[in-house]
């Protein structure tokens, strides 16, 4: 079973296109709902008998996109868009992990945390969008993009 945290890390590290559509996060032919919990524990949860809480895929994707903002600005912006924010104590380790900078697995990654099966999708729009993004990034030639968009 593939977990969304590992897939998000891989796609972020290799700068592969990630598509958000209809409350889904699409990684190539695989998809999860934005609300899917990853297995990255929210700082302070699960200690002293408290319930474990996990960051959602939507939260982590938003964090990656806005990691350059100061923490107060990021939190304010996330709140305005009704997206849970990554807590300050988690920022540095989480960002290092998602960028592939951290060679060791963080202690905040719960190996027994929530795992959800992926949804296999074939979405022609997503394929076209992915190819267009890859072309913009120089990962494929634009002729390949045009070819896939007319089929």
Automatic annotation (TrEMBL):
Pfam families: CDC73_N. GO terms for cellular component: Cdc73/Paf1 complex. One of its GO terms (molecular function) is RNA polymerase II complex binding. GO terms for biological process: positive regulation of transcription elongation by RNA polymerase II; transcription elongation by RNA polymerase II. Residues 1-119 form the Paf1 complex subunit Cdc73 N-terminal domain. This is Parafibromin-like. It comes from Parasteatoda tepidariorum.
């Amino acid at each position: 079973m593939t977990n969304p945290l590992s897939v998000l890390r891989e796609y972020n590290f290799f700068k592969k296109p990630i598509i958000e559509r209809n409350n889904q996060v699409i990684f190539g032919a695989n998809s999860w709902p934005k609300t899917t919990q990853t297995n990255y524990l929210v700082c302070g949860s699960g200690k002293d008998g408290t319930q474990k809480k996990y960051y959602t895929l939507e939260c982590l994707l938003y964090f990656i996109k806005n990691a350059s903002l100061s923490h107060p600005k990021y939190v304010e912006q996330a709140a305005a868009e009704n997206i849970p924010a990554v807590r300050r104590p988690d920022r540095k380790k989480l960002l290092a992990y998602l960028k592939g900078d951290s060679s060791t697995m963080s202690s905040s990654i719960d190996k027994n945390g929530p795992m959800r099966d992926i949804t296999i999708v074939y979405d022609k729009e997503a394929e076209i969008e992915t190819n267009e993004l890859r072309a913009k990034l120089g990962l494929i030639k634009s002729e390949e993009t045009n070819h896939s968009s007319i089929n």
